[in-house]
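Hi support team,

I'm opening this ticket because the web form for multi-chain structure prediction keeps timing out on my end. I have pasted the exact lines I submitted so you can reproduce it. The total is 762 residues across two entries, so I didn't expect it to be a heavy job. Is there a limit I'm missing, or should I split the entries? Thanks in advance, R.K.
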Amino acid sequence: MNAYYETRAGHRGGPSGAVTSEWLAQAEAALVNPPSSLPRSSPSNGSPLFSVIEEFNLWRSKPELAEAVAAIKALTAVIQRSEATTMMGLEKELHNASEALKAWDETSISLSAGCDLFMRYVTRTSALEYEDIRAGKARLIERGERFGEISLKARKTIAMLGQEFVRDGSTILTHGFSRVVLSILKLAAANKKHFSVICTEGRPDSTGVEMAKEMVAIGVPVTLIIDSAVAYTMQSVDMLLMGADGVVESGGIINMIGTYQAAMVARSMNKPVYVAAESYKFARMYPLDQKDMSPSPRHVDFHVSLPAPVQVECSARDYTPPQFLTLLFTDLGVLTPSAVSDELIQLYV
Amino acid sequence: MAPAVPELQVAINDFVLQLQRRQVEGSLDSAKLTVLLLRQVVSQHRASHSGQASALIEAVKNVGVRLIAASPIELAIGNIVRRVLHIIREEEVSVTNSTEAEVGAGFESDDNDNNDNDNDSPPGLSAALLAAANRSALRGPSLYNLLESGSMPSAAVVPLSSGGDSEDRSRSCEKNSKGWKLKHAVIEGINELLEDINNNHAQIAEQALEHIHQDEVILTLGHSRTLLQFLCEAKKKRSFQVFIAEGAPRYQGHTLAKELADLNLQTTLITDSAVFAMISRVDMVIIGAHAVMANGGVIAPTGLHMVALAARRHAVPFVVLAGMYKLCPLYPHNPYVLVNEMKSPSQILEFEDMSEYVEAALGGPAMHATNPTFDYIPPELVSLFITDMGGHNPSYIYRLVAEYYSPEDYSLE
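Hello R.K., no limit was hit. The queue was backed up. Here is the completed structure from your submission:
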């Protein structure tokens, strides 16, 4: 099991699950304390590469803090510690740090998307003629530290936009566990909408079971199905609502394995497929097929002893092409899949 | 709400009543009348103290909400209200920027006096930067300014309010001229909008020759003024044939058929149920829309979804003509139910013939007659939109929405 999924599973294992007031409080506390004031097991020993990963892990260990946010916090810490005297020097240092972060876990899309987003911002800001490097640095640090707030606000915005699509009397199919999807459903339930949810089991780490528990907690009728029952239940479903690990340039998404087939079944029965994702998950990738991504294997337990020649397919995620998606709910508004590439082009070209 | 002049109030009430009684119908008429009314609202608006733009926005919004409630099916009304609000917001930014530039020299000293007002604008920020921030705030959120958006509200508000404060104190006469300038600019913007609406048929028709070729067979359903002018324009250079489905139960196709026959166009009238039989001979389906939603879905007269499906079955291009004022920034959350209007069943059946069955409906189970006005056509079935701004793919519509509307106006509540 790679580090990325290990920590994700760890987060979910907690008793409280997704967006809780506790987590909000933690995120807000994280905003108040600048990273420099945090205890660090080994203070920078002259090697910036070493410390940035450590910094990242420190932030990531905060439950429910999104991966991209942790990456940006870690990069902010690099700026804070940097002794560069020119903007170019600072940029170079940051570039090395972000490359090190990305290399540390190549499978995480939101990590690299977060790094790219921040680097892009740094490059643009330095172009804004700050005469004084200290002023430039202060601004970058301020932005980085506010990113936690931005990401929180993003989730709220998405919940507001997404809940409009939840209609009274509708049945929603979800696949796996997503904090954004949960926040949409929570808000819809709080707005007194009557709907029911069907959760897939989400083998092998049973993320759907977590989702089902959350639904019980907010008083929404919920049905748990095995992953292979998606087509069977689709007839009674009004919409498919899923989160995403990453949104790629084509407007397609990369998400937990099984997303592709769920979207395919929904599309073939003319049910809308909605994806909820924060815009910092938009990644500069253009996978052409399933094998076009770096593999992210994880352990799959079949509960029987298998003879050695049997190979086990253990990919943790798949790519869903844009033609299977109806709309994306993001903090930039409700977008069609083709709008994603537009946003990315605006940022990077 | 701003103190409204009685005359204006009467005009608003009249228009609301007309809408409620469905005396004003159709997207073009309701759009035009809304523009005229809102121009009146803006020109008679009196509030020359500091937050003029916000008072103006508030006044327009108040009227807008009433008009929309009076006839929710006329989405064009809401579109026009949002367009006017967008004009006000845009002009506010440009007027503020130009005033800042004019008083640039004096502004410096004022700024020092009011340092406490400039709560958190960083020292490195120049006026040009703030202006850029304003503009991007208007443009709405994007990945490009995601990191800036944390401080966007304060950055957008600070220059306006501090500018207003200082000017209130020192030069109230200039303040007035700024307010006048804003109002003037907004009214000019509204006039331009009105002109765009008046010209949209001609602008769409201009593109006809690019789309209609010699000896082609065009199919349409019902009646549309935009389409009539489009075909007229094409007729000048090309000879082609038109199939018209009559569009039961309103039979507006009959009207179009007569108008086209008057132009000496080869016209064939067919029943709605014959569409599938004829579609294999058709080169292109062209229709006029009632409204275009933000996802590229179309609200159009009943029967057109069926035509769209028939066209898709035979891979015939399905082209939708729509002026920009029909572009609605909302998503159809539940299009099959929400965006529709039930007309009187008398169009479907004569009361004399069926009265005994209909009367029985009061007592128990009997015949019902429903007469919905509109179909929702999902964006996948549309090949091309032709607007007064050119031809667009359905997936590009969201971009046009971002260009013509401010995101804060999507919901007017």
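A quick check on our side: The two ends of chain B are 14 Å apart (CA to CA). Let us know if the file doesn't open in your viewer.
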